[in-house]
From TrEMBL, chain A:
One of its GO terms (cellular component) is COPI vesicle coat. This is Coatomer subunit zeta. Residues 12-149 form the AP complex mu/sigma subunit domain. It comes from the Eukaryota. It comes from Medicago truncatula (Barrel medic).
Automatic annotation (TrEMBL), chain B:
Residues 27-540 form the Clathrin/coatomer adaptor adaptin-like N-terminal domain. It comes from Medicago truncatula (Barrel medic). Keywords: Cytoplasm, Cytoplasmic vesicle, ER-Golgi transport, Golgi apparatus, Membrane, Protein transport, Repeat, Transport. Residues 768-882 form the Coatomer subunit gamma C-terminal domain. This is Coatomer subunit gamma. It comes from the Eukaryota. It is a peripheral membrane protein. Residues 620-765 form the Coatomer gamma subunit appendage Ig-like subdomain domain. Belongs to the COPG family. GO terms for cellular component: COPI vesicle coat; endoplasmic reticulum; endoplasmic reticulum-Golgi intermediate compartment; Golgi membrane. GO terms for biological process: endoplasmic reticulum to Golgi vesicle-mediated transport; intra-Golgi vesicle-mediated transport; intracellular protein transport; protein secretion. GO terms for molecular function: structural molecule activity. The coatomer is a cytosolic protein complex that binds to dilysine motifs and reversibly associates with Golgi non-clathrin-coated vesicles, which further mediate biosynthetic protein transport from the ER, via the Golgi up to the trans Golgi network. Coatomer complex is required for budding from Golgi membranes, and is essential for the retrograde Golgi-to-ER transport of dilysine-tagged proteins.
Length: 182, 885
């Protein structure tokens, strides 16, 4: 995709979710700026080191280096990042970050930490997939994103008409088991 | 690459680092993926395996072609399951595996079935997956469904189709363009994101049709866009239309400006900011247009959100480079940002203040910055150093505190780039502010006492060798230099020896003592150091006067472009004949081309780093001119203009001209480039018709022997003119040459050529060409020190103008003088303005001009012009220029 043709379109270069040691929990790159995994890891390390000491827990913070703008927000041991080019509207990037942050928050029901995130990695990856499609902003309303992904992958949210009887029974059993465990 | 993940996690087996993926391995997961082939699918288990695969990919693991194909084929089996969650994962993994064209066929039918499913989620995702992996041939088959999907009542489906359309437009434009009607319908959608995606696609379909884009913008700016993101897009399209439509209409209104301005009152901050940014980026934005944008940005500065503060201060920082006065209103808010938690914001605030501050606030600002410097990173410090350098050039009287600041931070810890930025700044200040020389050199001397960077030490030693001997007491530098000979590595020692020799050559009084020192260097352990010492002792040797050759050898820089020297040396074959440096061509070949390329280069931005000033081309021009024997008796050129284009962009031959003004002559340097690969031009001359420039008479014309493709050459034409007068005139130019066809394959030209000519645009020599832009540090002092009798005052009516700012700029351009103390910027909405200019008139006469502008009635501008100069006739000449301009 040639960037010159898309330059007017708001675009995101990557979405990152790192842990408190800077290791990757989930990451999705939409730009060719980092062609190899080691380039990606180097970028993540740099981003992490530059932002580590800041307090981005109440409000999203922002920084800029290597002609990229990075907005970020932390909660517990999770660090959320969204990167865009330096001529991008900072507030658009920030709205993407907020969408990512809030939809993960909704998913983990306030219990946002690395352990929960890894246990729900499938759903986090799906959320990223619903927020950005190849660099283009697809959706930024957290509730809509959550709705599109479904509350949990194996808890079937399909309409009954598309479920077999046994599947319906299985999911009912699971619901029951879950409610008992709580 | 394929290092097993288990190793990474080995040493962190404590509770906190529990991970469901602990010990996961590619081989094992690939084995597990066999469950996809089970006749009785366990949806939950399959989902988990896919998650594991995605985890591995996400951690940077790669699958071989065979592995990927195998996984892909088994994944396709999962379409049999009707579990919604599993299907969603299947879509995701297919996109991650990015199957090859021949594999895609396997899933095509499943995906096409999903595209027609009743479940919205299936439709939306099947479209996205299919469009991602498909090629053009399949597209025609599914086109019908895609068109339907674009106008689907479910916004998720519509968005999926539209975004896929945006991607497909890159590869299959002719197909996507057929969807125009549907996309246009989708622009009217009530769903915010659908509108945004539809608008993006519609614009991209029409982007090459300027009229259509303009129509689109016109209709949408009337207000049917609801989504903030779509509104941001519309603002970008609008700015593009404004940029391409070029000029302001006759009524002085910029088309669509009202729309941008109205977006400043939008309820979404994203839109407000986009509009403010668009306004500040307008070509030749006026102060009046800027004001509302600056006002909203100022409000953002005190926002509680760091992102908003950052966005605002970054934009204002950029505005401050071109319109410093417009930003001064925000200074108080900026100052409070110096203590901002976010250091990026603080740095941007400081550099903005450095640009907008006036002379009186410098000291206070420096105090604040000193506290600030200790806790920011090197890269921010460099930005601050650069800002301080330009501030010092702007207010030379403040050099003392700024130089102190620089020398203090030079002593602190820092990396190479940071130290280099400081050293460069001090060197520039020494060069441009004579008063700063002595203290600056001493700071540099102290720095090399304890400098860990060889590169910087040698640079400083070289610089000392040039500047040191010209100071009042050169001897005091010797100690610093000779210390280097004892304490440093060989590279630094060698350059210290050269520096000592330069002192010896320039200052006779020091010569005997320098000799003692140089002789000691003969016992150095390094051969380069010994060689240099021997060489210098011999060239400077004896008690006789140092002859010019020796001086040339020591100080004369090579007036041959190094590239040319290199090529000549490579061509030289050892023979009886010695290499003759005089045969090396002195023409700077690639220079005009490089100059043309420069403006197109995207500014790297950095943290709002100021664009580096234009390289000093005058020096290189001067050398080039002096190397042409015909012009040798003209003296030194008084001024060389910036290149003026004589051809339109992208024509067959690109020609620009540089006007060199001498005391009694004018030389036009035509820089020509031949842009046709199939042609070779020979005997190229410029025929200049000076019938509209009566006082000029042509004396020399220096043609160009040959002008091959894409290799610029220069033609010179010289005119005689009355001495010391600002003679103006208009010249028409024709390029005349012999064209020879070139065989594109062999690159050889045919023998026979045809004579041809090419009309160039006219060229004018105007009064401004005779005035050098030379600033003064304190205008008031300079003004008062001039003879009041030389003052000439008169009043002029400038007639109706766009505004004061435009009138001020017109007069500045007319006179070609240097505006002082930032007075070229007119504050918004002011009714009167005073502008101070300074310059040097041909013959080296200093001129100061005080312009007072006033708005009279609606748009009429009146101007009072007061001139003082060292020569009364020059004062009169300035008035004549204004009166006739």
């Amino acid at each position: 995709m040639s960037p010159s043709k898309l330059e007017l379109n708001p675009s995101v270069k990557n979405i990152l979710l790192l842990d408190s040691d800077g290791r990757r929990v989930a990451a999705k790159y939409f730009s060719d700026d980092w062609p190899t995994n080691s380039a990606k890891e180097a970028f993540e390390k740099l981003v992490f080191n530059k932002t580590q000491k800041t307090n981005a827990r109440t409000e999203a913070e922002i920084t800029m280096f290597e002609n990229n703008i990075i907005v970020y927000k932390f909660v517990q041991d999770l660090h959320f990042f969204v990167t865009g080019s330096d001529d991008e509207n900072e507030l658009i990037l920030s709205s993407v970050l907020q969408a990512f942050f809030d939809s993960v928050g909704l998913l983990l029901r306030g219990n946002v930490d690395k352990k929960e995130a890894l246990e729900n990695l499938d759903l986090i990856l799906l959320r990223i997939d619903e927020i950005i499609d190849a660099g283009i902003i697809l959706e930024t309303t957290p509730n809509t994103i959550a709705g599109k992904v479904g509350s949990n992958s194996t808890e079937s949210g399909a309409p009954l008409s598309e479920q077999t009887l046994s599947q319906a029974l299985a999911s009912a059993r699971e619901h029951l088991a879950r409610s008992l465990l709580k | 690459m394929a290092q097993p993940l288990i190793k990474k996690d080995d040493d962190r087996d404590d509770e906190d680092n529990y991970s469901p993926f602990l010990g996961i391995e590619k081989g094992a997961v690939l084995q597990e993926a066999r469950v996809f082939n089970d006749p009785q699918l366990d949806a939950r288990r399959c989902s988990q395996v896919i998650t594991k695969l995605l985890y591995l990919l996400n951690q940077g693991e790669t699958f071989t072609k065979v592995e990927a194909t195998e996984v892909f084929f088994s994944v396709t089996k999962l379409f049999q399951s009707r579990d919604l969650g599993l299907r969603r994962m299947v879509y995701l993994i297919i996109k991650e595996l990015s199957p090859s064209a021949d594999e895609v066929i396997i899933v095509t039918s499943s995906l096409m079935k999903d595209m027609n499913s009743k479940t919205d989620m299936y439709r939306a995702n099947a479209i996205r997956v299919l469009c991602r992996i498909t090629d053009g041939t399949l597209l025609t088959q599914i086109e019908r469904y895609l068109k339907q999907a674009i106008v689907d009542k479910n916004p998720v489906v519509a968005s999926a189709a539209l975004v896929s359309g945006i991607h497909l437009l890159q590869t299959n434009p002719e197909i996507v363009k057929r969807w125009s009607n549907e996309v246009q319908e989708a622009v009217q959608s009530r769903a915010a994101l659908v509108q945004f995606h539809a608008l993006a696609l519609l614009h991209q379909i029409r982007q090459n049709d300027r009229l259509a884009v303009s129509k689109l913008v016109t209709s949408l700016t009337r207000g049917s866009v609801r989504s903030p993101l779509a509104q941001c897009l519309l603002i970008r399209y609008t700015s593009q239309v404004i940029r391409e439509s070029g000029n302001i209409t006759q009524s002085g209104e910029r088309p669509f400006y009202d729309f941008l301005e109205s977006c400043l009152r939008h309820k979404s901050e994203m839109v407000i900011f986009e509009a403010a940014k668009a306004i500040t980026d307008l070509n030749g934005v006026t102060s009046r247009e800027l004001t509302p944008a600056i006002t909203v940005l100022q409000l953002f500065l005190s926002s509680s959100k760091p992102v908003l503060r950052f966005a605002a201060v970054r934009t204002l920082n950029k505005v401050a480079m071109t319109h410093p006065m417009a930003v001064t209103n925000c200074n108080i808010d900026m100052e409070s940002l110096i203590s901002d938690q976010n250091r990026s914001i603080a740095t941007l605030a400081i550099t903005t203040l450095l640009k907008t501050g006036n002379e009186s606030s410098v000291d206070r600002l420096m105090k604040q910055i000193t506290n600030f410097m200790s806790d920011i990173a090197d890269e921010f410090k460099i930005v601050v150093v650069e800002a301080i350098r330009s501030l010092c050039l702007k207010f030379p009287l403040k050099y003392r505190s700024l130089m102190n600041f620089l020398s203090n931070i030079l002593r602190e810890e820092g990396g190479f780039d940071y130290k280099k930025a400081i050293v460069d700044s001090i060197v520039i200040l020494i060069r441009d502010i004579p008063d700063a020389k002595e203290s600056g050199l001493l700071h540099l001397c102290e720095f090399i006492e304890d400098c860990e960077f060889t590169y910087l030490s040698t640079q400083i030693l070289h610089f000392l060798g040039i500047e040191g001997p010209k100071t009042l007491d050169p001897s005091k530098y010797i100690r610093y230099i000779y210390n280097r000979v004892h304490l440093e590595n060989a590279t630094v020692r060698a350059s210290a020896v050269s520096t000592l020799a330069k002192f010896g050559a320039s200052v006779d009084g020091l010569k005997p003592r320098i000799f003692v020192l140089l002789r000691r260097c003969l016992f150095d352990s390094d051969d380069e150091v010994r060689d240099r010492a021997t060489l210098y002792l011999n060239t400077l040797g004896g008690d006789t006067e140092i002859d010019n050759d020796a001086k040339d050898f020591l100080f004369g820089s090579l007036d041959i472009p190094l590239v040319n020297l290199e090529t000549s040396l490579k061509k030289y074959e050892p023979s009886e004949e010695a290499f003759d440096i005089n045969l090396v061509p002195k023409e700077v070949k690639s220079q005009p081309l490089a100059e043309k390329k420069a403006p197109g280069k995207k500014p790297t931005g950095g943290l709002g780093a100021p664009p580096s000033g234009p390289p000093s081309t005058v020096d290189s021009y001067e050398k080039q001119l002096l190397s042409i024997p015909e012009f040798a008796n003209f003296g030194k050129p008084f001024k060389s203009s910036a290149p003026v284009e004589l051809t339109e962009a992208e024509t067959e031959y690109a020609v620009n001209v540089v006007k060199h003004i001498f005391d009694t002559h004018v030389v036009f340097q035509y820089n020509c480039t031949n842009t046709i690969p199939e042609q070779l031009l020979e005997d190229v001359i410029v025929v200049v018709d000076a019938s509209e420039a009566e006082e000029f008479s042509q004396v020399i014309s220096k043609p160009l022997r040959s002008l091959p493709y894409d290799s610029p050459g220069q033609i010179f034409v010289a005119f005689e003119k009355p001495e010391g007068l600002p003679t103006s005139g208009k010249f028409s130019n024709i390029l005349r040459f012999i064209v020879k066809e070139v065989d594109p394959t062999s690159g050889e030209a045919e023998d026979d050529g045809v004579e041809d000519e090419y009309q160039l645009e006219d060229l004018e020599v105007v009064a401004a060409d005779y005035i050098l832009k030379v600033g003064v540090s304190n205008f008031r002092n300079a003004w008062e020190s001039m003879d009041p009798d030389s003052e000439r005052v008169d009043e002029y009516g400038l007639g109706p103008r766009e505004g004061l700012s435009e009138a001020v700029n017109t007069v500045i351009t007319l006179l070609g003088m240097q505006p002082c103390e930032g007075t070229e910027v007119v504050p918004p909405n002011s009714r009167s303005h005073t502008c101070l200019l300074s310059g040097v008139f041909i013959g080296g006469v200093k001129v100061l001009v005080r312009l007072s502008f006033g708005l009279d009635g609606a748009k009429d501008v009146a101007m009072k012009l007061a001139v003082r100069s060292d020569d009364v006739t020059v004062s009169d000449a300035i008035h004549e220029i204004v009166a006739s301009g």
